[in-house]
Design goal:
Layout: H1 10-21, H2 44-59, H3 65-78, H4 86-91, H5 95-105, H6 108-113, H7 118-130, H8 136-148, H9 156-162, H10 166-184, H11 189-196, H12 198-208, H13 217-233
Length: 234
Amino acid sequence: MFVLPSSRHPLLALAVACALAGCGGVEQEAASPARTLTPVPVSQVDHERIAQQLYLAYLGRAAEPAGLAYFADVSRQAALPMDMGAAYFRYGVENGVRQVLDSLAESPEAVALYSGSDAAAVTAMYRNLFNRDPDPGGLAYWSGALSSGALRRGQIPVALLAGAALADLQAFDRKTDLAVAFTAALDTPERMAAYQRDSGVAALRQVLAKVSAATTDAELRALVDEALAAITRG
């Protein structure tokens, strides 16, 4: 279970403080005009959705309520983009964004989730983001970028989103919808306690793996109910 910044996690605490303060600024012009076309979050709901996408991309699960509130505040103060793919371009030019994403990628939960070789890590990222395995060319490209040091692991999830096909983006969007509904349903002490257990997180990840671009609203509601039942059984 991911632990929010504290004295036990000074790197993430420092990174978030840096992002909130806007330190580092812009080092160079972005290489893509996509940054200028990205919708700007305007409401608490927008920032909470960004927080859920950070959790999905780096931790492979929905946020718990405390984490949701914390990273929604990070999103608001650091002006994170609504499109997580656009964060890839900001990673390269803004120290605060880079440090927040790297710190998530280097958290014990993310390291365990994306363990093993570079190829194994990239495969796990594809599965967590899009619920599919990478094609051979994509696997070779991204694992090669990691092996050569051209990219860091903190960049890969947002880089995959930046270059994703429409169907993959739709699948990620539906996974975000499920995460939003699931966290909202953690409204009893029993459900909160169940989701704090490793077995609860594992149960939710199994349900998230069933989502696709074609998942309907009715199917999504049924999956949320399935996840809630699964975490309490664990």
